[in-house]
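Please review this one:
***
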Amino acid sequence: MVGQGKIEFCHGRVDSGWFDKNMLNGEGKSLYADGDVYTGQFKAGKRDGHGRYQYPSGSYYIGDFKANFQNGHGRFFNAQTGSSYVGGYKNGLFNGLGHIFKQNGDVLTAQFTPHFSSNYEEEYISAEGRYVWFNGDVYEGSFALGLMEDVEATFTEKSSGAIFTGKWKEGLPVGIHKRLANDGSEDQVLAVPTGETTWTWEKL
């Protein structure tokens, strides 16, 4: 087939758009048997160019494709968590500089390394990253499996202006940290966990 048309496949997929040699080329649409829908550009029957991939759950990706996979830059919205990722992709996975905007207002900015994960917010992150809580607190350091983890990271407390420097593991500060107060004075404090994602500082 050459020209505008529609092809229904035996496995349930339905393609419509501009065809060349029975393959979508240019603008088109694919409806998949599992309910997924892709609308955008094709090349030789593969998703290639700019497009939108919609999942039955309500999640979706809008951005660049190459050889059927997300490649380049794009935005993924996770309907289950209400969070969004905006940044680089390589072969369908986070890659390079990216930002995760969480439903509660927290923002994570980091360098991502492609790694398969069932939860996009738990992708491996390499190099340095920055996490900004909705209340203005800021973590600057390294991440592992989406959690703060560094032998020496900095945490800036918005309410007091104090800067804490020390070790983080599995998303929480651990042990003794150096505290630089807003007035320039320094002392040491102990990080004491109060929950899975919360803690308090105790002066030594």
Observations:
- The chain has a mean pLDDT of 91.
- The chain is about 0% helix and 65% strand.
- The CA atoms of residues 48 and 65 lie 5 Å apart.
